[in-house]
UniProtKB/TrEMBL annotation:
Gene3D superfamilies named among the record's database cross-references: MFS general substrate transporter like domains
Chief localisation class: membrane
Pfam (any one): MFS_1
PROSITE patterns given in the database record: MFS
Record protein name field: MFS transporter
Sequence ranges assigned to domain Major facilitator superfamily (MFS) profile in this UniProt record: 1-411
Bilayer topology term: Multi-pass membrane protein
Residues spanning the membrane: 26-46, 52-69, 90-107, 113-133, 154-175, 181-203, 228-249, 261-282, 294-312, 324-345, 357-378, 390-407
Subcellular location: Cell membrane
Superkingdom: Bacteria
Length: 411
């Protein structure tokens, strides 16, 4: 494989490099479709459970946590299955389960039925997402070796497709909610029916260069791979910081504006930045920064975003002026994400054992998810601790800085 740890080759201009293969184009479009179908439903689930189903607040949180666990926590299982059986059966099975889960959720009226549907929805993603992501990473290495350019450009395009789906999906869901939540669920299921049909026709039975491996031994080697585990820790710190869009930022917006209405605009700002600037930022970083430096720079920008809010908090600004630090935080966090996320995904093939790319791709998400789970609990306690207003944000700024020191230093 081509090492990501040294100096990168110059990135070719888009029109002069090797074009993406049909398989890569299919997988990128898959990520777009996955997120459109997913985000047409899930952003509206909490309100549906609280109002239509009548669940208590703690139970709503528990159900949402179960979905995250059944998805993110089991990515390593989906990745291992993709290594063993190939991506086609794993992706197709995941699509079938997602369709069944959305249909079940649309008709679920009791707590046990909602929990079953949500677990099914989450486990479906634990199957198809690591399978698709690992194959994108592997094909990106092939594309780079063929002279197409830096592999991170492919991962950046994959990120843009996912973010575009995350932007379009809620808009579609909001329109469908004018009818009812069941209609939104059935529309989400219909998206995955189209994905299933497309992949049943277009996804190859056997992908050249992808060899199937046995289950045994992979996890033991992974746990001994200190460089990969160091990358997981750094990536988990980035995800913990990104998760503050849903934990620390809403509290700051509520304080400054008196409501959380501006949150929608800040989320839209983040999505539009990724869609519009991810590819140019990746091209720029590919020409100037080695992978480790790219991730260090991204983590530094994220830390600067937390520090900006920390420095502004003692002033106690409110109104439009009070939202400026929050907007700065969103911009810096998003720019940091653009530098960190594609490089981390592109680095995994260099650290994975032969034939275990699916396992390692899934483990990156699962280990990082555990870090976010533990870190989010600590963050929530920190925000409610009654410390001076700037202290929690300064502590959060220190997390990505510390993570930068964990990154692997050599090939």
């Amino acid at each position: 494989m081509i090492s990501l740890s040294g100096r990168r080759p110059a990135v070719r201009a888009p029109g002069r490099g090797t074009p993406l293969s049909p398989l890569l184009r299919l997988l990128v479009l898959t990520q777009l479709a996955f997120n459109i179908g997913f985000f047409a439903v899930l952003p509206f689930l909490a309100e549906h459970l609280g109002t239509a189903v009548g669940m208590a607040g703690w139970l709503v949180g528990f159900v949402l946590g179960l979905r995250t666990f059944s998805q993110q926590g089991l990515f390593v299982v989906g990745g291992a299955l993709a290594d063993r059986y190939g991506i086609r059966p794993v992706v197709l099975t995941g699509c079938v389960l997602r369709i069944a889960g959305f249909v079940w959720l649309g008709f679920a009226a009791r707590t046990w039925a909602v929990i079953g549907a949500v677990l099914l929805i989450g486990f479906a993603a634990a199957l198809f997402s690591p399978a698709v992501e690992s194959e994108v990473a592997r094909q990106a290495v092939v594309w780079e070796a063929a002279g197409g350019g830096d592999r991170t450009r492919v991962l950046a395009l994959f990120t843009v497709a996912g973010q575009a789906g995350a932007f379009v999906g809620p808009l579609l869901g909001a329109l469908l909610l004018a009818v009812d939540f069941r209609t939104a669920c059935l529309a989400g299921a219909a998206v995955f029916v189209l994905v299933l049909a497309g992949h049943a026709r277009l996804l190859p039975q056997h992908i050249p260069g992808r060899e199937r491996v046995r289950f045994g031994g992979g996890a033991r080697l992974l746990l001994r791979n200190r460089r990969f585990l160091a990358l997981c820790c750094a990536y988990g710190a980035y995800l913990l910081a990104y998760n503050q869009l849903y934990l620390a930022l809403p509290a700051e917006v509520e304080r400054a504006a008196g409501s959380q209405a501006p949150l929608a605009w800040l989320f839209a700002l983040s999505s539009l930045l990724v869609v519009g600037a991810q590819l140019p930022v990746t091209r720029w970083a590919g020409r100037r920064l080695a992978p480790r430096r790219s991730m260090v720079a991204g983590l530094g920008l994220i830390a600067a975003g937390f520090a900006a809010v920390a420095l502004a908090r003692p002033a106690g600004w409110t109104g439009a002026g009070g939202l400026v630090p929050a907007a700065g935080f969103v911009v810096l966090l998003t720019l940091g994400q653009m530098l960190v996320a594609p490089v981390a995904r592109a680095w995994v093939p260099d650290l994975a054992e032969d034939g275990r790319l699916g396992l390692y791709t899934g483990a990156l998400s699962s280990v990082s998810g555990l870090i976010v789970l533990a870190g989010s609990s600590a963050t929530g306690h920190l925000l409610d601790s009654g410390l001076p207003a700037a202290v929690p944000w300064l502590v959060l700024a220190a997390v990505p800085l510390a993570a930068a020191g964990l990154l692997p230093r050599r090939d």
